[in-house]
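cron nightly-structures :: item 1 of 1
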Amino acid sequence: MSRGVHERVIMHVDMDAFFASVEQRIDPALRGRPVVVCGSGRRTVVAAASYEARPYGIRSGMPLFEAARKCPDLLVVQADIPKYVDASLRVLHVLEGFTPDVEVYSIDEAFLDVTGSLALFHGAERIARLIKEKVKQEVGLTCSVGIAPNKLLAKLASAMHKPDGLQVIRPEDVPSLLEDLPVEEQWGIGPRLGTYLREMGIRTCGQLAKIPVGILEKRFGIMGRMLYRMARGMDDAPVVPCGTGPDARSMGHSMTQDQDITGKEEIAWYVFLLAEMVGRRLRAGGYAGKTVVLTLRYTDFQTFSRRMTLKRYLATGPQIYETAMRILDGIRLKDAVRLVGVSLTNLVRGRTQIPLFEGERKGEELVLAMDRVNNRYGEFTLTWGPLLGGRKDRVVPPSWRPKDGDFKHTVP
């Protein structure tokens, strides 16, 4: 892959059916069989499906009962998060042997900037083949690798020939590649957004590229400018290795719902879940904040946020939830809701105050004890009563990143 003087070379490494593949590696009886990994709750959904299960139409996010109906011979394995974290760290150990510029995007994905490593390893494609070979030898898993001038295109490339694929997208190939590419295949455009674009007569990235940015911004707000750039394969985002970015200015999570929500009671459940996820991220990074932001998006993509600033700093799920619910109580919903988001801003690092009252101290001790259990056994192993029975048991949050000291316990 030739490159200009200032051209970056970015890789996206995506593990193939990661959770299911880890289970098949460990248990030979699962190999070559249709396998799904899921949680333990009554309403659990498929967290990962092996490639043998996918011809039956089984996909991540599908209710388990539906997956079992599609494939009567389906083998169901309960998720074991520590095993997947261990495998992920071993893969990361391999990747860091080729460049220090490795950004963990999720537990089974990473971006690499290999621009400075090309001469050492004799080219990007050779680096990719060595990564695939070493991951298979040292971790026992396969991965797909995309190579491109930026993160957006690298992620697109890695999905083009899964499993165990390798795809290069060169700058000169971008216009022809995107011309007939369905918009839903571009990173960041989900089924809902794809539906809205189709209603505008836009089915491919080539068609999207012909729409003036002003029209897209009027229809989709700030997302409109992002769509304008995505249609052209443009992305300036750097690869940010873990621990090298600036201190966070805010932390948050959002969820787009499979079905629109019409009542505040159901919204409240998701607010609590998101508040707990935000609290976990805050404490893991040593942060606290005092401005809570609640974001809602209606079915027509109208999105708005409301915020409330307190005099004290918050770092626990119940505290964030209580404030977010005060915000929600003051909102008069005009339509069904398709996205709920909770975030915290005005962040500071380090402890800001010592709890004065015994009840507050016990509450903090309880939260820290829950953190220790969840750090060891997986997210939501211990959780609050209102979240019991929900769909997000034993999840790996999108915020998962390796912590200092992880390698000395997991990587030989």
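cron nightly-structures :: done
The chain is about 40% helix and 20% strand.
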